């Protein structure tokens, strides 16, 4: 049961992460800016580049948090069987961490290419009518299981 809640939290985190970074299909502020009104018109040259660098920096940071929370962080499979060299282990861990972040960023770029935009009412429906009840039901289910099966003190 704990594994199911862990997997569901992973998918909830991905959906919320897409919505928080204003990536497709939740990029409603960009949809408003495509009507030639908004921050895309007001910024130019360096400020425009800095604005988009900040957005992609947000994606990198969120990908790093996702990797740390759900994909093992710096861990490398079977590294203790390869070597005991601390320097080599550190290099391998940083390489695998960067590789995992790159895969998550690539996943978010592919999501932007594959999915259409939601309307604002669909976004609110997903958030309030689907994700919130599911996450609360998983929370209460896991809490009930933990309370029901814990050993009573003697």
Short overview:
The chain has 154 residues and is an all-alpha fold.
Can you give keywords for this protein?
154 residues, mainly alpha, flat
Tell me the distance between the termini.
Answer: 27 Å
> The biggest beta sheet, please?
none
Q: Poorly predicted ranges (pLDDT <50, ≥5 residues)?
A: none
Number of strands: 0
Number of helices: 6
Rg is 20 Å
**What is the overall shape?**
flat
- Helices and strands, in order, run as HHHHHH
Helix/strand structural class:
mainly alpha
- The proportion of residues in beta strands is under 5%
Overall tally of structural domains: 1
Task: Summarize the helices and strands and which ones pair or pack.
Blueprint: H1 2-20, H2 28-33, H3 39-42, H4 45-70, H5 86-114, H6 120-149
Helix pairs in contact: 1-6, 4-5
Descriptive notes:
Helix content is 74%, strand content 0%. It has 154 residues and is mainly alpha-helical. The chain has one domain. Helix 4 (45-70) packs across helix 5. It is flat and about 55 Å long. It starts with a helix and ends in a 5-residue tail after the last helix. The mean pLDDT is 81.
